[in-house]
Amino acid sequence: MTGTELPLLAMAVPAVGAILIGVFGRWPNIRELITVLTSVTLLGVVLQILPLALADDFWSTTWTAEPLVLLEMLPGIPLTLKIEPLGMIYALIASSLWILNSLYSVGYMRGNKEKHQTRFYMCFALAIASVMGIAFSGNIFTLFVFYEALSVSTYPLVAHKGTPEAVRSARVYLGILVGTSVGLLLPAIIATYYFTGNLDFQPGGVFQEALANERIVGPAIGVLFFMYMYGIGKAALMPMHKWLPAAMVAPTPVSALLHAVAVVKAGVFSVVKVIIYIFGTTSLVSTGQGEWLIYVAGATIVIASCIALFQDNLKRRLAYSTVSQLSYITIAASLLSPLGYMAAAIHIAAHAFGKITLFFAAGSIYTAAHKTNISQLDGIGRKMPWTMGAFAIGSLSMIGVPPTAGFISKWYLLSGAWETGYTFVIVVVLLSTLLNAGYFLPIVWRAFFRAPPEETHHASMSHADGNFGDPHDHGHGHKDHGHDDHGDHGEAPLPIVFALTCTAAGTVLLFFFPDIALGLAEQIYRGLPLP
Amino acid sequence: MIDIQANLPALIVVIPLLGGVLATFTGRGILPWAWASLVTGATFALTLRMMATLLQSGAPYISYELGNWPRWWGIEYRVDLLNAFILLVVAGVGFITTLYARESVNDEIAKDRHHVFYAVWILAITGLLGITITGDAFNVYVLLEISSLTVYALIAMGKDRDRRALTASLRYLILGSVGASFILLGIGYLMMVTGTLNMEDMHNQLMRLANLDTNRTVLVAFAFLLVGLSIKMALYPLHMWLPKAYTYAPSAVSALLAATATKVGVYMAFRFLFGIFGVGFSFYAMPSHLILLAMASLGIVFSSLAAIRQNNAKSLLAYSSVGQIGYIVAGFSLANPDGVAGSIVHIFNHAVTKGGMFLALGAVAYRVGGTDISHLRGLAKRMPLTCGALALGGLGLIGMPLTAGFISKWYLVKGAMGSGMWGLVVVVLFGSLLALVYVWKLIEAMYFGEPTGRSAEAKEAPLSMLIPIWILVALSIYFGVDATFTGETATRAAAGLLGGTP
Amino acid sequence: MIEFPPGLILVLGALLLPFVKGPVRGALSLLLPLATLVAVWLVPDDANVTVSFLQGMEMTLVKWNRPTAVFATIFSLMAFGGALFALNQNRKVELPAAFVYAGSAVCVTFAGDILSLFIFWELMAVGSSIVVWSGNTEASGRAGLRYAAVHFLGGAVMMAGILAHVFALNAGGVENPLLLDYFAFGPGGFDALSFNGPGDIAPFLILIGILINAATPPFGSWLADAYPEASESGTVFLSAFTTKTSVYVLMILFAGTELLIYAGMMMAVYGIVYAILENDMRRILAYSIVNQVGFMVCGIGIGTEMALNGAAAHAFAHIIYKALLLMSAGSVLYMTGKRKCTDLGGLYHTMPITMWCGIIGALAISAFPWTSGFISKSMISQAAADNHLFAAWMVLTAASAGVFLHAGIKFPWFVFFQKDRGLRPPDPPWNMRAAMIFFAVLCVALGVWYEPLYAILPFPNVNGPLYEPYTVSHVVSQLQLLLWSGLAFFLLLPVLKRTLTITLDFDWFYRRFVPVLWRSVLKPVVTVFGWSRDVFFIESKRFAGAMTRADTEAARIPLFREWSLGSAMVLITFFLFVFLVVGYTH
Amino acid sequence: MSDHDNDTGIIAKLRAPWQSMLDESPKAVRTFWVVSLVLLLLIAFADIFVHHHEHFGIDGTPGFYSLYGLGACVVMVLGSKFVVALVLKRKDTYYDD
């Protein structure tokens, strides 16, 4: 067994899961059990693939083996699946976090009595199947196909509530994502095929030959690069970021896994993949057409952070933070240096763990306290210490403080910046550190150190730290809506607290044990053609 | 017993012709439908066999002389890869829509006219098949009239549901007749110059003309034909007959028309522009491709916009069809292999996609009593399979990957790039985005709206409707996933057209 | 044998604290620092505990550097004193945070490589920010946010510098570029730099990162901003670690860097000037931290063995007496709830223990003979004199006098004597008194029995004592200096009249200038931009509506109207005409 | 906050900060001053007997430390109060607005 067929299995597991969920939709317990089982199975499959991607002789064996052809869509344009280290990181993150997210979803969807839960779980599984397709795609065309599948399968999740606002936001979501991908990415792919006759991902890119025999010239590379970068709207490079805040109307598990991990990571993953495996370092460096991306991504980091500073809605603030953090990955990749690529790969993992924790916390607050705005969060950490503790850890990871995963990616990003000599990137990272601290820490402070509204009358300075609430003490949040504003609540349901505790722990563990992520990142590094 | 294999081309026309005539004697009840199904089914089988024969023989074309008259005197039926493919589409869609028609026709047309309906129905299909198979220019006109007149009648039969079908039919009749007479005039002028009605002969004679490019008769013929064909294939802005006709026709008729009628118009354009006038004249000597491209581009943009404005799902799809014709015309106007192949493949892809969608709307009308957007609201809960088909078909219209529509777009964009027509690339992709908008109007209504009135109690469509709907939708997905057959056939057919063989 | 960083006892132990209550918690909070202290001394001399990190990099978690012993010991001791002082306060978050903070500081002193040093350095910032927040007031919240932002920014600057240097070392083919030895810039490595590559800017970035933590102006305004806002016990913790860890790191990396002499001189004078103008008693003490750290920084800049010993010893002594002073101030605050000198006075009536401990601390900070300050501070002046650094010596000497003025007399005078405000609070609870007495005893004990401290200094000499503080000349000259500056204080008392004012510092830039800049320049620009964007979107929406919706008034565009048959015929004719014309004219 | 000093004479100004303690025990204050001044003179004249090791010349001068301590403090206080404060002093509610 060479393992090349495993990616197909990785795609099939959630797809089959989706069907089963649909079949057993009437029985919530079975349906949700299937979701969880599917996610566990998927992780099992992905873990089977991992050793192949980490193997020392990966580039000479697994990579050179014939790719798994799903089908030949058009003559000469097959849909292929292939194992690749960067995709491995992405698949691993998505599949492992899906387990926690499934648990979380159960708590959240039941806790908030959401409708259409079968559709929700089905689309979720389909989205994960698409994610696996993206992660293991063997050529840019396959990636595009699953990229679109992901857009479509997540649309019902964004529009889930069916309110006019949800539908409108979902329109923006789909409009921008499909608009950019059809309007820019697709023609870019077709043009790539037109110029090179080759759409396969390969280290060093596909353009070298065309450049050498002058079938394509530098400026054309530049135009194509632009089309790719903005065509991948999921990377939320400004000004194509509007869909991300719009998508926040979705139920929180969706925001958490999809809009912190799966969908946005599909975007930046594609960006990195295109840079490394379609354009290749040499083509971009020799033509000098990729440099603008550094400045655009840098501007995105800073501007999105500035916008985040002024958001009072928690999920919106997180969304703008995501916009900013995604551009960390983009800027790292656009440095076009091996260390930059490593930084990009690692930040995909690091940001995933941190941001999903933050979103889980936001959803936990919503479930337990029905609060969505930061200004309502005074003193909430005393009632929900686990939630807000996790939130604090996630925040530190965003700022890049040890011992959290964010530190490691910042480490590599700065290394890459020095390697290439872009002082601009250094300045951006410093500024962004400041801004991240500026918009995350006030939330943590409010939650833990500000007296909750009803306690202001008899706040005592020295006993204001509150008790560590019992995570089991919940379940009354819905019966007495009249008291919600008075904070008569404890922690969120157990599955939620469990999930967010796990991701927060993951954020810290990734700092101490980054070996897998680093190993895969180094594998990318090893595959690059020697200069 | 006649030799089926030897007389295949003739049988493809003769069987439905006779079948159509005989249908008037089938009386009431289920019989007319059963007969029609039998006839169209047999015809479809014949076209399949035709295709198989052609592919097996490896010959560029199969020629059949009716009554064994030499072709320059008599009528020649000629089947090459292109029209075998179109025949397959017409007969296939004809058969499937016939299967579908039973419940829908029961519902929409008075019981005492069913035998008439099916007779006209079969004859319409016959006309379309005939246009496609014949190699004789005048025969084209004759069959065109047959198909046109029958279609007028079919549309008018929508009056039982909505009186406006009559005016729509009249409108089509007037404009269609103008188009047909323009075509007749064009053919006439051509005969004056060449002295023949056989297409291949005509081409050869024209090529022999020393002053072809400046010959005024040829030019006038060209102009008349182009305008006439544009009307027939509903190229923007000469599409004025189409939206109302599609909207008010009986459900099955809308599907049949959308899938086949305009496509046969396009096929005629292929034959005349590529086959008779030749690529050199049509696209290099005359700058007609620029005009066609302009019309197509405007059509893509404006009829898509118009589609977005519609509040009736059927007129929405009708306007969308005008836009899709724009893609097809734009493709062959490029006159390069990818473009023409895109055009041909889109004839097929659009036929199955749009056919499926119209059928699904028919099912909606059958259960809910109308096809307004308000009827569709929240319907996905009540009629999940129908709505699912509509949604999948919609994705095909947008050109989402893994649907047939994407394949067409791939070829078209590649063709446009090959000709350096970057503007067309933009238009095609912009059209996709507009398609996204109007398709999403349907999807939002179906999946995220709250049902009212009859929609709230609607049941899933009957199986006899669902199966045909899903056959077409499944085809549109299958040929999006594995487009090797359609893609290669289209590419080869395109090579044939560009090579100049009629 | 200890095979892990002793500081981890505190860091990890801190995580247990939230889960225990009552006496167990109290016992744990006192035992953890003591265990750390013991562990520090159990680390074998040749310890070299390494772990691999980040694929192929090696972190040295435990290693004795020259100043490790002094700093690790005092940090552990300080954690104990602070915990004792905080024992009755029962703050759920503050103590664990303070322990993480203290423990990380201990870990920094044992770090043998730059990465682990930096990691604990950042962890300190986390812990200390929480300690500031534990003041639980609006002001402490805001100050804590500013504090955290400055420190995380400083950390990032330092990290950028570290990576620049690592990059340069990697390019030079160095085996393990994280080792602290490669980062010892010192006089040779730092002063002779050119700006050619990233490696050259590295020391500057690292230095800025450290100086931010050392509260060197203009980077240092966070200190006086945040420390006085923390809780009574919080300030005590805060006073000890951040700046002194910076001193430690400066000593390791930048010993002998001339720039630091001037930085130190500036800090010494700055601290005095601002303290003189200050009204808040804890802020007076906060400024005096800057002043005292200035002595240490200056010593590090001088860089001789004597100077470094002096800096280390002074850090040791300083932590004790500064904590003592802040405990005293904290006790006053705890019992009266007042922190401004204008509200205080006359407390000697009822708070004798607090008063006497405060006075002992004040004498120690002023380096009176037989107090801990005397045996440490003078080493630095001595080093300056030995190296003929006239300006440095003059400034340090003047600053010594100034310290007595602003911290040695001003603080006790205005708080405990001066005008009686009628406040009659008793001495604070037993644990606070115990903590104060413990540190007061230490202050005096060190002043008298200084040999054990001298023995653990970075350069404990081999041939007899390195420095002899108690010469007649030294005692006399010090007494002259201090007593006459005391005279100056009492003569100038009318001028020193306390006012309800604050003094602007560099934090003005981010507390005032940036907000004003935002309000008056950037926000209008953003508003106009947003406004034009809104107009654009509204107009495009209207346009899109007109194009896509049939039911709006604006939507009745002729383009979409249903054509009449007549116009259709005209159109057909038109196209026929077009084709004909094209045909004829091509 | 004023210390209710209505008198403007120099003696009155010097007395003002002590007023509260003078009210309580004037004797203690007087003793404090007398002892302090004696001590100051004694320690200043100790230079006659003690030789300071000089590094820069000036530090060996008798009375140097006394005068330097006094002078440096006067300069620093006056400099702070009349130069620095002029530019940087603000009401203590400055940042709260």
N-to-C order of helices and strands of chain B: HHEEHHHHHHHHHHHHHHHHHHH
Would you tell me the overall average pLDDT of chain B?
86
Average pLDDT reading of chain D: 80
Structural class of chain B: mainly alpha
Q: Give the total of beta strands of chain B.
A: 2
Bin the helical content of chain D.
55-70%
Shape of chain D: flat
**How much beta of chain D, percentage-wise?**
under 5%
Kindly provide the radius of gyration of chain D, computed on alpha-carbon positions and rounded to a whole number of angstroms: 19 Å
Low-pLDDT ranges of chain B = none
Oligomer: heterotetramer
How many individual helices of chain D? 4
Structural write-up:
The complex is a heterotetramer of chains A (531), B (502), C (586) and D (97). Chain A is mainly α and 531 residues long. Chain A is built from 19 helices and 2 strands. Chain A has helices spanning 6-23, 28-54, 85-111, 117-135, 140-158, 164-196, 208-212, 218-231, 243-246, 252-287, 291-309, 314-334, 338-369, 380-383, 385-399, 405-420, 423-449, 494-512, 515-527, and strands at 68-74, 77-81. In chain A, strands 1-2 form a two-stranded antiparallel sheet. In chain A, α13 packs antiparallel against α19. With 502 residues, chain B is mostly helical. Chain B is built from 21 helices and 2 strands. In chain B, strands 1-2 form a two-stranded antiparallel sheet. The longest helix of chain B is centred in the middle third of the chain and has 35 residues, at 251-285. In chain C, α13 runs antiparallel to α14 and α13 (305-336) packs antiparallel against α17. Chain D is flat. Chain D has 2 domains: 1-49, no CATH class; 53-97. The longest helix of chain D is centred in the last third of the chain and has 25 residues, at 64-88. Chain A binds chain B through residues 71-75, 77, 144-145, 148-149, 152, 156, 159, 162, 166-167, 170-171, 174-175, 178-179, 182-183, 186-187, 190-191, 193-194, and chain B through 395, 398-402, 407, 409-410, 413-414, 417-418, 425, 429-430, 432-433, 436-437, 440, 444, 447-448, 480-484, 487-488, 491. β3 (501-503) of chain C pairs antiparallel with β1 of chain D, so a sheet runs across the interface.
